[in-house]
Amino acid sequence: MGPQIRLRADGVTPAGPTVWAQVVKGGAFRLDAAALLRRNAEEYGDLVFFKALGRPVLQFNHPELVQEMLVRDAPHHHRNLVMQKSKAVLGEGLLTSEEPLHMRQRRLAAPAFHRQRIATYGAVIARYTVAMTGEWKPGAVFDVRSEMLLLALRIVAKTLFDSKFDDEVYAIAAAVDSFQGFLPLAFLPFPELIQATAIPAMRRIRRSRELLDALIYRMIAERRADPGDRGDLLSMLLGSVDEEGGRMSDAQVRDECLTILLAGHETTANALSFAAWLLAGDPEVQERLGQECSETLGGRVPEAADYARLGLAERVFAEALRLYPPVWVTARTAAEAYEHRGFEIRKGTILVAPQFAVQRDARWWPEPDRFDPDRFTPEAKAGRPKFAYFPFGAGSRQCIGEGLAWMEGTLALAAIAQGWKFERVSGERETMRVDPSVSLRPKGPLRLRVERR
Ligand code: HEM
Asked: What per-residue confidence (pLDDT) applies to 28?
């Protein structure tokens, strides 16, 4: 397993920043909580203890500890506070639900994410990406993240609902975006009262919810009236039956669809945006990628069967997910008191495994801030602990869309790199500033130039 777990303090109990130290670095917490967790790991070792929101927090920074938290000790945990608050919008979908409902839903949804099923989505991913680049003009400068968000939304609409969303795509993108504004409100005192008020942000969120509910219930009603497999996720969700012969209710299907719509598009769009920015900063890797794609595809649109031969495209996506994990921290709440390596974890303690810190730890990733897709060749991967890299989480709550995300990231990058390259714009963003809110995203617009290769 390599280096031992590092503990500060008396070598048994975890150490960590005092509340005062957090206040002093406080700006940092507000400005970039991901960087603060990374600094905690560097300063206090593999197990860090501090207080936030008046609660004890335990931060796990070693792959062995990450595995213990996410896999071994999972039965002691509940969803984290953010997920608990998100129920007001997402209902009881896969992200927010607790056991035993979660396991039942997960079994019902699993066939929709089966490998063979995902292969059928390859064509959709490639076709939409090619349609997107078909609109690009050489030398154009634009916000790559907005472009990737629309692409990912169109892909999820087609794979989930067999729908193009057509004219609705911009309204849906805006509605999804406004949900991000919900969480800060949910953490204020008396959230139910705030949710019932007419403040503009709350009105916008309610309107977004109505729009998305109307859309999803309309799709469900159409399918119930004309059942059958349309090759999309919704058909699978409506058609799946559990061991007792039970099916999902409309409300349950709505919760799952909204969850997948939200969880499945912004994460992938952010990862693709970060990948574009990293490629723009490394012309040599970008050239190698272009060559690989041209040789493998010979000018045709990629398909699922090409995935295995697009090794560098996959490694570029993997490295983007390492440096800028869209889910930058995984959190849980201790549902009961339990013992961990000789000390007591109290009920209510917040437990965090920060992807952003572990995936930039020099013990597993030499020169951790450097972009180097070849860290993911089979030889390079061989000596590294499994849980030094966990952009899709682990255990029973591991991302159900992981296979789809790999397919989407790899085929979209290949479809782009075959004909286009990204360039940074001089005088603009020299370094990447991130905004670690619900997901990790670039702070402000991510403007890049596109040129033909
Ligand atoms: C690069 C893209 C993506 C990343 C980095 C990502 C990351 C994650 C992570 C880390 C989790 C676990 C959260 C936790 O343990 O609390 C998760 C869960 C989940 N993801 Fe993803 N995800 C991505 C794409 C997708 C896609 C494409 C879909 C669906 C189309 C999806 C649907 C979900 C769902 C439904 C869950 C909840 C699973 C459960 O609790 O059983 N994700 N994702």
From this structure: 46
